[in-house]
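Hello support,

Our group uses your service weekly, and this is the first time we've seen a run hang past the timeout. The protein is D-aminoacylase. I'm not sure whether the cause is the sequence or the server load. Input pasted verbatim:
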Amino acid sequence: MTIRQSHLCLFALIASLTPAPAVASQEGDPGPYDLVIRGGRIVDGTGNPWYFGDLAIRGDRIAAVGRIPEDAEAERTIDATGMVVAPGFVDMHSHSDRVLFEDGAAESKLYQGVTTDVLGEHTSGGPLAEPTEETIGGETVRIESLGDYLDAVERSGIGINVASYVGLGNVWGGVMGDSFDRPTEEQFREMEDLLDAAMADGALGLSTMLAHPQALGVTTDDLVRLCEVVARHGGLYSSHIRSEGEDVLEAIGEAIAVGERAGVPVDIIHIKIADQALWGRMAEIVALIDAARARGVDVQANVYPYTRGNNDLVSIIPPWAHEGGTEALLARLADPEARARMKRDIRSGLPGWYNHFLAVGGDWSRMLISARLTPEHAGLEGKTMDVILPALAGDRQPPPDDLDLLFDFLLAEGGSIGTIYAHHTEEDMNLALVQPWCSIGSDGSALATSGPLRSGHPHPRNFGTFPRVLGLYVRDRGLLGLEEAVRKMTSQNATKAGLDDRGLLRPGSIADVVVLDPARIIDRSTFLEPFRYSEGISTVVVNGRVALDSGAPTGIRAGRSLRRGR
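Update from on-call engineer: The timeout came from a worker crash unrelated to the input. Re-ran successfully.
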């Protein structure tokens, strides 16, 4: 029996033990209802087989699911014949934290069926060492704590729900600033206090990006100590692990160890093997996580359905050059002696550093610029670095060293250039995707095809993650069954995040609902033409209100800030 066959047998057993869906009747809940969705294939989020049925909504809750009498009174009825009715999708890994203040409509998410965004990877909306201000409804709102951020983003008017981790970058950097020094005991207690306050504000847990230069000095013991604070609040440890390259197995082992020692659930962010030297070894990662789960460690992961990832061109620069912040980095990029040292480290690597340059074999063609560049370089947007470097060199003879051109490019762009790296394989990604403990997260943001959020040359996952799974990997390739794919997008993520009243179609749950055409659903965004909405989703309901109607946004912004435990 294959791994996948054994998992399917397990799903069948679980399905046989799960109670049948509630059926509305005149004696149970006769209405009236605000909205009834009739005649669709109900995929309820549990992983159970679909069934034909109706769904009724009253206020912001699901009132009934099953066979609803034809004469039941309803303000509006939607005919879902031939369609699938599912819970709203929960994006387990999103970066919409700041863009929602620019445009809260969240159109790229609604067109994907996403009704809840989970934010805060490593850096979150609070706590902030230096408070920020947002203008909302003509008033200036001060944001310092995570609670301030959650209040402000909901007040600004958002089309989808948001929930957030507290980022290690906020907790550690809030105390240590740009210093790479070890914290004193007093400083560490200050970090614990910041984390405790953010958890009390409703954070889902602690999120890390351990490949960040400053985080390289954060030890496993440090993470365990911080996660013990998270455990007291019943939260989750979400980790962009220390390395997705040569040390990926050790990095996953560290995430497991943190969860096991601190007594917290673990979610590994966009699990992958992003170094060609280790391609084909995903089965070893699967075995590592399966073994941890077998001994009682609650470790899961998420994945996005693409073989390219988004980072920054500055990630090629070794960690020591980042200490002191952006101004210090720029000074080193301009210094000949520092340049010489950086070149050696980039080409040879450093112990414990995930080197993006070596991970892609030093192949500039596997780095596509996704940022909005300055006017001087605007014509280079959306091009790969093998095309950009000769353009930057011009007619100079002899041609400058490629890394000197890289340093000059970063200097001219202020030290940061968003970049898409082609660094992992379809086979490894597919093996991760089918694991029962692996859910879906986009690693994208709420963008738009027009207005202020049409910017740069973004990764297509911002527009296509969830329809891509349902269209390509469910319908076209049969890698996943429909019900299992929906579970990975809904109840699995809601349960991990502690959002207990979302992710399932059952009476009493919050009415976040998606109606989609299983024959048409597909992503349309590509690496060359990213600004394209997905197709095949006709209706999206957020907190009981129709946000996408007949495939078009209604303008209703019914989203809320969700806080763990509330």
